[in-house]
Amino acid sequence: MVEKAFSIPVDGGTLSGVEMGEGLPVVFLHAGVCDHRMWREQMQLAAEMGWHAIAYDRRGYGEAKSEDVAFSHLDDLEAVLASFDIHAAIFVGCSMGGGLAIDFALRHPGRVIGLVLIGTSVTGAPWSATEEESAIEMAEEDAWERGDLDLLNKVQAHEWLDGPRSRSGRVTGAARELFLDMNAKALAKPTLTAEIERPGAWRRVEQITAPTMLIVGEEDFSAIIDRHEHLSETMPNSFAAVLEGVAHIPSIERPDLINRMLEEYLEAFEDEDDDAD
């Protein structure tokens, strides 16, 4: 399936992304250490199954361009949907992309067909770290304060790709090369200082009734695993899975696992359509 590039003007900037396939839309929202390329294999799967797969780079990532102006990622997401004349979609989000999907679902519950949330962030969620996890957070902060972006990228690869409690360099090959390239692009971009803060979602997630698949890697931060368990108990129409041996970015570390789960999720909607017919 051939992907087609697109560019969408927004206030003070331009969002860039790719689309492929035709049918009902599946919108992929990337993690805060990645860009739209983290979803290549999942987009291909969705398109081959007869869905319209869309992924874009948010401001501060990938090929997106932005002046340092006031903006909202929620408003930008709405601009993307409007450009494709999309009223409702399935949203697949990882980390900060998942947090954006949650916030969109709370703002527009009638526009969310379903959610797939991987190691998701949640605005307003608590955070704590084990001693081992705190050590890598301190290394990250030190690299940031020294302005050593190359070192910072390597530390964040350990933190998010390998997992904070795993051996540095656990994930190798094309997955690591892709992560380092995506994150290097984000780190090299000018800091955007005027993002509009979104309302906290942590105490409102029970309002989300769309069918939701929750996924977390067992090598992820313990706070994210705890968050996953809370969401699975709180969101009324959710089902959850913990993936063994993977960390925060399983779509590139183990695309076979994520593709298999995504395929089953999308097939459930196709089965519902068949039953309705």
TrEMBL record:
Membrane-spanning intervals of the chain: none
Q: Which InterPro entries match?
A: AB_hydrolase_1 (IPR000073), AB_hydrolase_fold (IPR029058), AB_hydrolase_sf (IPR050266), Epox_hydrolase-like (IPR000639)
Question: What Pfam families does the annotation carry?
Answer: Abhydrolase_6
Q: AB hydrolase-1 domain location, by residue?
A: 26-259
GO CC, alphabetical? membrane
Q: Which UniProt keywords apply?
A: Hydrolase
Is Transmembrane helix there in the keyword field? no
Q: What Gene Ontology molecular function terms does this protein carry?
A: hydrolase activity
Q: Which Gene3D superfamilies match?
A: alpha/beta hydrolase (3.40.50.1820)
Q: Which PANTHER family match?
A: AB HYDROLASE SUPERFAMILY PROTEIN YCLE, MONOACYLGLYCEROL LIPASE
| Descriptive protein name | Pimeloyl-ACP methyl ester carboxylesterase
| Protein's organism | Devosia crocina
